[in-house]
Amino acid sequence: MIGYYDPNKHASKDLGTPARLSEKHIALTIDGQEITVPEGTSVLRAAALADINIPKLCASDNLEAFGSCRMCAVQVEGKRGYPAACTTPVEAGMQVTTQNTKLARLRRNIMELYISDHPLDCLTCPANGDCELQDVAGAVGLREVRYGFEGENHLSAEKDNTNPYFSFDPSKCIVCSRCVRACEEVQGTFALTIDGRGFDSKVSPGQMEDFMDSECVSCGACVQACPTATLMEKSVIDQGVPEHSVITTCAYCGVGCSFKAEMKGDQLVRMVPYKGGDANHGHSCVKGRFAFGYATHGDRLTTPMIRDSIDQPWREVGWEEAINFAAERLKATQAKYGRESIGGITSSRCTNEETYLVQKLIRAAFGNNNTDTCARVCHSPTGYGLKTTLGESAGTQTFDSVMKSDAIIVIGANPTDAHPVFASQMRRRMREGASLIVADPRHIDLLDTPHRGDAQHLPLRPGTNVALVNALAHVVVSEGLEDHDFIAKRCDTEAYQAWRDFISEERHAPEAVESITGVSAEAVRRAARTYAKAPNGAIYYGLGVTEHSQGSTMVMGIANLAMATGNIGREGVGVNPLRGQNNVQGSCDMGSFPHELPGYQHVADATARSRFEELWGVPIDDEPGLRIPNMFDAAIEGSFKALYVQGEDIAQSDPNTQHVEAALTSLDCLIVQDIFLNETAKYAHVLLPGSSFLEKNGTFTNAERRINRVRKVMPPRAGKEDWEVTVELSRALGYPMDYRHPSEIMDEIAQLTPTFTGVSYDKLERLGSLQWPCNAEHPEGTPTMHEIDFPIGPGRFAITEYVATEERANRRFPLLLTTGRILSQYNVGAQTRRTDNQVWHDEDILEIHPSDAEVRGINDGDWLGITSRSGQTVLRARLSERMQPGVVYTTFHHPGSGANVITTNSSDWATNCPEYKVTAVQVEKVSRPSAWQQRFDDFDREQRHFLKAAKDPAAQGVPQ
Amino acid sequence: MMVRVFVPRDTTALAMGADEVADRLVAEADARGIEIALTRNGSRGLAWLEPLVEIETDAGRMAYGPVSVDDVAGLLDAGLLEGSTEHPLAHGPTEAIPYLARQQRLTFSRIGVTDPLSIADYLALDGFRGLETALTLEPQAIVDEVKTSGLRGRGGAAFPTGIKWQTVHDAPSDQKYIVCNADEGDSGTFADRLAMECDPYMLIEGMAIAGLAVGATQGYIYLRSEYPLAHRILDEAIARAEQAGYLGADIRGSGRRFDLEVRLGAGAYICGEETSLLESLEGKRGMVRYKPPLPAIEGLFGRPTVVNNVLSLAAVPYILDRGGEAYANYGMGRSRGTLALQLAGNVKRGGLVELAFGTTLRELMEDFGGGTFTERPLRAVQVGGPLCAYLPESQWDLPLDYETFASVGAGVGHGGVVMFDDSVDMAEQARFSMEFCAVESCGKCTPCRIGSTRGVEVIDRILANQDRDANLELLDELCETMEDGSLCAMGGMTPFPVKSVMTHFPDDLQR
After folding, report:
1. What pLDDT is recorded for position A951?
2. What are the φ/ψ torsions at residue B355 (nearest 5 degrees)?
3. Which residues form the NADH-ubiquinone oxidoreductase 51kDa subunit iron-sulphur binding domain (chain B) (predicted)?
4. Which residues of B touch A193 (CB under 8 A)?
5. d(CA B243, CA A917)
6. How far apart are CA B375 and CA B370, in angstroms?
7. pLDDT digits over A636-666, tens only?
């Protein structure tokens, strides 16, 4: 039996001040006990490590010492007074006393002062039983408050309930500044401060604003830091203090934060970022921390449903009937249209084990390679580009690596919105002085990091990434900034020479490409020098790199740049794709692509294939199957007739919505497994209710290749974990699978995947997480890749010729639309739209530069028709200086926005990753929704009715 | 030959109508067809005589004061311009006025004598000689000279200046700073202001020497915003010193750099505390930092920084010019050199009195101060600012020196001497001490933030005779908590005046 990761054994204790990493160790004596700790460690932490627990209120080991509460006063032999243990660094031979009559009186008297300005409502306080003030008052033995309670106080201070997730009750505040410091040090937003001074000191969001009106991004760091009930989750206020907790992994974004799911029975009360999580170190964002209410939302699908056609209402059926219905349809389709006529799509939101099983189902039970995954539309160029150049389809670094970077390039990524917890770590490093270079058409918030050092923005035109990266590389080569040593030792000479000749050509000079990219040559030169000359230069990139017609070329261009400057193979450097969804890395690793078996082993590789064939007991097709866009085309053309989609909403997320809709309506059988009736499910014939991440066991792999455990904290709503459903479907198709627990699936993965041979649930329990490759060579995983060599031996420079996209602006479509994400919403929004995150972003908006707006007579809030070569939709306008003239921007979090009605079929030459980031459009003021939007509304209403009708067969007809 | 007339232009003199007096002098002289050469000098520090008009004569400068606008005509009639001593406001030769003659002015030797902004005047009275000497010395030798002088921090903490400089000197860094604490906020103090308004080059010179000694190339004067005149004078003096090569990239052709800038505070007493000052100087909220690290190791913007009071830095030119030994020859015990005492409060003759350590309060208050302004008996005196003890008569004969005062729970502080006559209510003074702390606390540490407010309340209960004994005991314990538990001297020393009232004036708490 696999036990839960025990928080009591791992990082649950607050040691008071952050760890120090000095190699030099200092021995001292605390209460007669000899203790040895790294130099720079505080007396408070040294004592805590020896289980000598000095009372404290303002200290917390995720914040630098502050020394304000004075509760941790100690006596040090030979030193005057009563220094605070938190701010006193250890010294050799120091003799510290932490408890005596004098110290006891001092602490009790200080506590008496605190309590003289604190409400005495412990029994009705939401923090009752979970309050550090209460604990310390108990520890110091406070028995009376001689000052009385009539004196000046803050007891009638007004509550701020504006934030949907937490309340701020200043009457309970002890002004320890932990929230302010957490906002600064942990989150890096600096939204909080202390207003006033002396007794009037009070915590203030912004300049005495409400939390909602301030710059607060609701990451929850302040709530986490608060030692009292001042900042408190509303869920705890409503439900009371949780009674047990389970460590698990967030299902939003590729950062893969570890959380403590704090429970009462099977009710989730709150998600608290877990300090022992190596991806997040106890930090969180508004999504992971608070937006979990969707898991118990009334829209959850809880019963399997079937129907013969999409113009029919749903019928609720049992699991067996639904599975058999699906299996029969699949079998019939194959019988009629051939083996290749069906396929499946794995999910980057599901676990590794589930993804593995879906592709296994397709390869073994469907008997073809028609498997693909949503990474097709996001990071497939990463897989291709990095594999080609560096030999492995993954980011090279661990997140913590950024703390050793001196120059950080961010290309086509918006970490503060899309990877907020990692953005906080970047910001911390920027505050320590690292230079930032952002290549993005928009002025992203990372550029506005408070207290950062040097920051450079290269505001390139959408679609010109490759020209820019070539120019950067040209500067490196032409100005003698190459790391010749690294290149000679680590890279293929012939490929390098060819690349060098190519990149040295004057047509790649910043001056030559200025007119293409729109970025001044001087800025490009400066950025290249900053990166190349930094002791450690790191590149982070996102979908702004991959989702282009030259996405793969750009990824290779980035790898070239890193190799040329020797920025590979150690901490602080590297090439780092920021993965969008929680398990994009994992779904790619698990063999979701039509041409690759798990571990990126090509289906044409007979040796690899035979190992799978042997274990699976079936022959595997040696030809790659269909990619998602091919499936759509084949469906429309009539040769592809049935599709199994697990946890993926292609109807909303894939480009050219009308094309996708045409494909889906062409299918004879669409099986959708999801937790909600998503847009794709509206075209389905079989609906298999999915289980949320809270309802199953498994693993996710984050952007740093970290395999994290997902642990079941509540039973699946519909009775089955997703992997169990796949097992059932496979059985019904005549290919039985025998697993009792996802750990057994992982054991099989480990057996077949060379980079996973050392992975097991036992080891994950022991070490918390593992970064692949994890095998005999790296038994505890590999935080930094390519330290000694590349999996392909020498690194291979690739020729990266810039080819302008065919999607270009002209007189008819003079603007370029680029799409992205916003902090509060996640991807297609199916989860976050069903939470209070809606208060921040309840509709998608078109951002447009004021000058483009002016010439079109557009004002803030106007309805705009946005027309591309693919279609038209209507969104509201927001004038924004973040945009550059000629570029407009929107998000696709709301299905009715139809952002993907406008995006086109243009895609990456190598991987077919859609060019979401460049669509030529025209924008004009309109007065009503687009034709597509009107059709969407009608269809949506009809399908919702069909769902309702399944529950209530009495309901008939279609509402008008 | 034109007669040279001096009318001071420091804040005190201006407050007493010096500008009007100067205008009237010029007008009256003009009306009488006499041409006079008017110099706006600094103050001699004899506040009780301001505006103190001086006339240059062959027998030296003759003093008249306090002169009001209405006195001008009469003074001219009485032969002012000839240096006549006939008029009742005439005091004869300025330097023979006993209040001045009996002082030992090392630091304040030039104030009132010169035009504060005249580099020629400054040079004529040994100005920049210390800097010229320092330019010939190795940094370590400069530090050694300051160590020899025995100079201790004049801001109140009395930390040996040479040792502080040594620490900064020894700290490796590509950038170090000299920060002058000119946030003079103690009650009854004005010596920093006089130094800056009346002899700004002395401070500039002292800071430049400090920069050479420790390897700092940038200095900041953190000036309280309530000193607008000092601000204008310092800015102008810095500009002129740069022009003349005493500041800037190449000091006197030595190839060594020192730049200086004035930064204004924002009206918080706590920013006189050195770590709060540094926070404020960095543009942050004036909150106390914990120590260690000492500012000498991690100070302004995290770099090694000398933070010295105006008077500490102002003593340096003399020390470098005459040698540390010369300075150390003054004083007693471990308190070497001179102390700038500032007589204020209920005093007949308020002003600046620079004396070697070792004098007594009684001499100071009686011989210099001339007793109380109200002519009632003296009852108490607070020396060293609002965080120092009130001294009863039994302590007025103690020699003024750091160690002696500390031994009775009192402090010398920044040398402010605030006198009270027998009408004072010492319970109110104790309450005021707590209230001052409540108003000025930065709010960081709990004993100071909450303790000071509770202190006021407890004293109020004592005064209202509510559970007096229990509350007196509580007050005593609160004082102990604040003293032992506070993060900085603000909360840590507020109990000193309170406890001195409890000890020496207990009857006032028993009304």
Report:
1. 78
2. -140, 155
3. 427-472
4. 285
5. 58
6. 9
7. 999 999 999 999 999 999 999 999 999 999 9
